[in-house]
Design brief:
By secondary structure, the protein is α+β, with helices and mostly antiparallel strands. It folds into 2 domains: 225 residues, Mog1/PsbP, alpha/beta/alpha sandwich (Protein Transport Mog1p, Chain A, 3-Layer(aba) Sandwich); 74 residues, Cytochrome Bc1 Complex, Chain D, domain 2 (Orthogonal Bundle), CATH 1.10.760.10. It is built from 11 helices and 11 strands. The strands form 2 sheets. Strands 3, 4, 5, 6, 7, 8, 9 and 10 form an 8-stranded antiparallel beta sheet that branches. Strands 1-2-11 form a 3-stranded antiparallel beta sheet. Helix 8 crosses helix 11 and helix 10 crosses helix 11. The longest helix is centred in the C-terminal third of the chain and has 14 residues.
């Protein structure tokens, strides 16, 4: 399961409160703890003997701009995920992420139908978290955002009385598991990820993921989350004496800006100088590797051509 550091996008935690009705879906033999996020917006149930890492709490300054909580049976697994290391044999983990629906429309407008289902959201999250983007596809080659990831067809799953979600299975060289999406309202999507070492994903772990999905509640708003997503994070820019006019902004975009998302996402947008400056600065704040001259070269190219 990739850590948020490698995704270069956006994430932190809000809050969920367990509904008594939905809690009935949980296995009576499993002992549960209730997780409450630091901002008291998110709560969910998780296995009582598992350990929790909340990126919003651990990384206040550089944490994700929406709720992102990872939990696993042991600290070693959490440490490996935090360092972008793949699962070892016997390891497994889960995550709860809350995303605003407008985020999907902004980041991948071509990937979802006009009225996406929970299963559609689950599929896109699986690609975001487990796919592997090439920095620059070979000339004439079609970019494969899944990077060899195999996804099952979305299926509807019952989570509680009158509550359903969408589930997709996933398999890659380093991960096997499921992604479950549940529509909390028209603008908020709760995502539950459960994964482990390939060949070791069990029905028990799948059921745990369903139980966690049934327990999730969030009292924050999509508007507040989108505002945080669109804010420009603080960053230190490396100064350069190079003349930006001598740099190839188009090549820099292909090399530096497609590490975590497709080129299509950039080319579909049309902004003025202020808009592109804010976008490029936001991406640098999220980790895009550009110095001061490269930043200006990219901005100049985008303003002239988009």
């Amino acid at each position: 399961m990739k850590s948020l550091r490698s995704l270069l996008v956006w994430i932190t935690l809000l809050t969920l409160i367990i509904s008594p009705t939905l809690a009935l879906a949980q296995d009576d033999d499993q002992e549960w703890e209730t997780y409450l996020s630091p901002d008291e917006l998110l709560t969910f149930s998780y296995p009582a003997d598992w350990m929790v890492l909340d990126y919003a709490e651990e990384e206040e300054e550089m944490g994700p701009p929406f709720p992102f909580v990872v939990f696993a049976p042991d600290q070693e697994t959490l440490d490996r995920l935090d360092m972008d290391e793949p699962f070892l044999e016997g390891q497994r983990a889960m995550a709860v992420v809350i995303l605003p629906a407008p985020f999907f429309a902004m980041m991948m407008p071509e990937a979802l139908p006009e009225e996406p289902s929970a299963g559609d959201y689950a599929s896109q999250v699986a690609v975001m978290f487990f796919g592997s983007f090439e920095e620059a596809p070979a000339e004439g080659a079609e970019e494969d955002p899944t990077g060899g990831l195999t996804l099952g067809e979305p299926e509807e799953v019952e989570l509680g009385e009158d509550v359903t979600g969408g589930l997709v299975t996933l398999l890659s060289e380093t991960d096997e598991g499921v992604v479950i999406a549940r529509l909390l309202d028209d603008d908020l999507v709760a995502v539950i990820i459960a994964a482990g070492y390939p060949g070791e994903f069990t029905d028990d772990l799948r059921q745990l993921a369903l139980d966690v999905a049934a327990s999730v509640e969030y009292t924050g708003t999509a508007d507040a989350m989108m505002e945080a997503l669109l804010a420009v994070p603080e960053f230190e820019l490396e100064e350069s004496d190079v003349d930006p006019a001598t740099l190839d902004g188009n090549a820099l975009i292909d090399e530096r800006c497609t590490v975590c998302h497709t080129r299509d996402r950039i080319d579909q947008q049309d902004k003025d100088l202020a808009g592109w400056t804010a976008t490029v600065d936001r991406m640098i704040g999220y980790g895009a590797d550009l110095d001061s001259a490269e930043r200006q070269a990219v901005i100049n190219y985008l303003v002239e051509t988009h």
